[in-house]
Write a structure and sequence with these properties.
alpha/beta; Arc Repressor Mutant, subunit A; pyruvate-formate lyase- activating enzyme; 2 domains; nine-stranded mixed sheet
Length: 449
């Protein structure tokens, strides 16, 4: 990409894992509303389940997740009792024992759990829901806190995918982000996963980190490829110290400048494609025969709070402090503070603290934004027709795409919008044009690249 365009369009825009996006959730959606929405679900609807484990053994300074730090297991054990209680409460509000096709453990760090608590949690899910035999059960895994006993427990519980946080293998970068994770530690965990039968392995890498160089990132990519993962994610570090105060421990003068950051993205992406991975949307890469690559090929790719996915469920139930759920009626988010979360569950109340109802216009714009983010190509006319609307209502948005078209980032032909190869890195900027809530120049979001 031309460097003048990188400066022009490297804006702060949402990642669009939902629409409306989380900053627009409000406290007008609470436990009673969520309970009604759950009871109104079609019993035949298949679900996706997300469990947020809100604890880590230590804080990584680059982290943007909602987590607490503890060296003792007692707070984790108490939290898990609450989470199991929430699972029971939510299940009781549903019209029947519903079917789940996807389960995802995120955090925080799910590997802070004892093997026994992990297995007990999966067993509880199987009691309260019908987990499909071919369901994907995925776990975000920190190699620093996962031993072989834990990996065996994952396999015994039926885990099918492990997403391993690597970030960067350079010791200097690891020191700067307070995440010391030697190559051999990652290699050992991957070896255990394969030995004990967890079949799918993803690796998560990050560019834009302090002291990170282009050559260092390429070296990390080559080392990651050596593990033969099915998928690699290459995320841009989101430096938002006004939201995550621990990020203030990273001196801003150690971060790569905008030009270096773009070079890292472009060179890193090119290297992954040279290694045979298919580029998925903005930041995911998959083996050509992986389900994610096939979903892209057949325009069945989806996007949710875990990023790009093959998960087609229209309902996502989020459990745990700060857990976010998606239902046909709207989005819900649990209270983030663990003590308030536990107080609610112990009192027999859902822990919903905020959310947003989705109206017809939101649903249409969400369809447009997510299609752009996933397929990089969209015809507004059939999508609008599917929603009982006329594409002419987006004449203003189409006009606002003109600068991106003039710069070769998109092509606009009538109601059809195609993101070019050069514009792929800025698909979020194109999607943001259809966001009626986003204020121009809003600074709460991360950079577009």
């Amino acid at each position: 990409m031309r460097r003048d365009l990188s400066a022009k369009y490297d804006l702060r825009v949402p990642r669009y894992t939902s629409y409306p996006t989380a900053p627009h959730f409000h406290p007008g959606i609470g436990p009673d509303q969520y309970g009604r929405w759950l009871s109104e679900l079609d019993p035949a609807t298949e679900l996706s389940l997300y469990l947020h484990i809100a604890y880590c053994a230590e804080m990584c300074w680059f982290c943007g997740c909602h987590t607490k730090i503890t060296r003792k297991y007692a707070p984790v054990a108490a939290y898990m009792e609450g989470l199991l209680g929430e699972i029971a409460l939510v299940a009781e509000h549903l019209p029947t024992r519903m079917t789940a096709r996807h389960v995802h453990f995120g955090g925080g760090s799910p590997t802070i759990l004892s093997p026994e608590d992990f297995v007990r949690t999966v067993d509880t899910l199987r009691e309260r829901f019908v987990i499909k035999p071919d369901a994907e059960i995925a776990v975000e895994l920190d190699p620093r806190t996962a031993d072989e006993t834990y990996v065996k427990a994952m396999a015994r519980a039926g885990v099918t995918r492990a997403s391993i946080g690597v970030q960067d293998f350079d010791p200097k970068v690891q020191q700067a982000i307070n995440r010391i994770q030697p190559y051999d530690v990652t290699a050992a965990v991957i070896g255990w996963l394969r030995t004990h039968g967890v079949p799918q392995i993803n690796l998560d890498l990050v560019y834009g980190l302090p002291h990170q160089t282009v050559d260092g990132l390429l070296d990390t990519i080559d080392k990651a490829h050596g593990f033969r993962p099915r998928r690699i994610a290459l995320f841009g570090y989101a430096h938002v110290p006004w939201m995550k105060k621990h990020q203030r421990l990273i001196p801003e003068d150690t971060l790569p400048d905008a030009e270096t950051r773009w070079a890292q993205y472009e060179r890193g992406t090119a290297r992954l494609e040279e290694l045979g991975y298919v580029k998925i949307g903005l930041d995911h890469f998959a083996a050509p025969d992986d389900e994610l690559a096939l979903a892209l090929q057949h325009k069945r790719l989806h996007r949710n709070f875990q990023g790009y996915t093959t998960d087609e469920a229209s309902v996502l139930l989020g459990f745990g402090a700060s857990g976010i759920g998606m239902l046909p009626q709207g989005y819900v988010a649990n209270v983030g503070e663990t003590h308030f979360y536990l107080d609610a569950i112990r009192a027999g109340r859902l822990a919903t603290a905020r959310g947003v109802a989705v109206d017809a216009d939101d649903a249409l714009r969400r369809d447009i934004i997510m299609t752009l983010m996933c397929d990089l190509d969209i015809d507004l006319a059939p999508i609008c027709a599917r929603h009982g609307a006329d594409a002419g209502r987006f004449a203003d948005e189409l006009a606002r795409l003109a600068p991106l078209a003039e710069d070769g980032l998109v092509r606009v032909d009538g109601t059809r919008i195609t993101v070019t190869d050069e514009g792929r890195t800025l698909v979020r900027a194109a999607a943001a044009i259809f966001d009626r809530y986003l204020k121009k120049g809003e600074q709460r979001h991360s950079r577009a690249v």
